[in-house]
């Protein structure tokens, strides 16, 4: 199994928890047995995840029951991040913090740069959250951040720059 996929699978396991239990900034901790979980099965899951290196948390009912690796380390998860991004976008929309019709620049003022040549197209201000989410923003495929190849709209092109920019729109305070 590809390392980034193992990291992505092992990143988080959540179940519903009352809002009052959501930690800020540290997760409340519990032993697996205290929340009805089998510690040996959790260790098996952790050991499987560690075959691909990485780090992760297992959260159950708002409690941290197991963690491994360095949670501050950045991993290149490639396209597996698109699944997390779509979930984060849905939550952000559900919380009323963003709309698909919003201009992306409202949430990410420097969207489309780098490269600086994107400013010259005049298209950056036309990009919406929906364009980023549906791969219709006009960015090239190149990893990271790419050039705008066409005006945002009905044309589709799989890229990394669109989802990367959407992630920044969602996470930029």
Q: Keywords, please?
A:
two-stranded antiparallel ribbon, 2 domains, mainly alpha, 173 residues
What does this 3D model show about the protein?
Strands 1-2 form a two-stranded antiparallel sheet. The protein contains 6 helices and 2 strands. The longest helix has 14 residues, at 81-94. A hairpin with a 2-residue loop joins strand 1 (56-60) and strand 2. The protein is mainly alpha-helical and 173 residues long. It has 2 domains: 3-68, no CATH class; 79-171, no CATH class.
Fraction of helical residues: 25-40%
Give the spatial strand order of the biggest sheet: 1-2
Question: Given the C-alpha coordinates, what overall shape results?
Answer: elongated
Largest sheet: 2 strands, antiparallel
- Name the average pLDDT: 83
| Sequence of secondary-structure elements | HHEEHHHH
End-to-end C-alpha gap = 35 Å
Structural class: mainly alpha
Approximate strand percentage: 5-15%
**Helix count from the secondary structure assignment:** 6
Number of domains: 2
Radius of gyration based on Cα positions: 19 Å
Poorly predicted spans: 1-20
The number of E-state strands comes to: 2
